[in-house]
Write a structure and sequence with these properties.
Elements: E1 17-18, E2 24-25, E3 32-33, H1 35-45, E4 63-65, E5 83-84, E6 88-89, E7 96-100, E8 104-108, E9 113-115
Antiparallel strand pairs: 1-2, 2-3, 4-5, 4-9, 6-7, 7-8
């Protein structure tokens, strides 16, 4: 179910749900949007997500973690040099959603990764 939920671009609520194939709605602010249009608006405004070397990132890119990152509740940090494949860009402070081998689903800040 969480794969179908998208954060609302207006109020940032993480509970946006699919109304139709490409239309989402927010239960908190009643905003309706198309994710493809939000992505185009972000690109038009120049709100590109940049890595630590100021290279633009896109959905599906492979990145490398540039420093050890502590994880709450985990006995060890994510090691520097860990390669993360098939990232997904999301709104918010932690703007990369990914799966890290040995840790599972994780949200990262783009300032702690570089494009591979």
């Amino acid at each position: 179910m969480s794969d179908q939920m998208k954060p609302c671009p207006l109020c940032k609520s993480p509970y946006g749900y699919a109304l139709q194939e490409d239309v989402y709605a927010c239960p908190e602010c009643n905003h309706e949007w198309k994710p493809s249009e939000v992505k185009m608006e972000r690109e038009e405004k120049g709100e590109a997500v940049l890595d630590s070397n100021q290279n633009p990132l896109q959905d599906g890119d492979t990145v490398v973690v540039i420093k050890n990152l502590p994880v709450k509740g985990a006995p060890k940090p994510i090691k520097s040099g860990t390669k993360v494949k098939n990232i997904r860009l999301v709104e918010g402070d932690h703007n990369i959603s990914c799966k890290i081998p040995g840790f599972g689903a994780m949200a990262l800040k783009s300032e702690f990764v570089r494009k591979a």
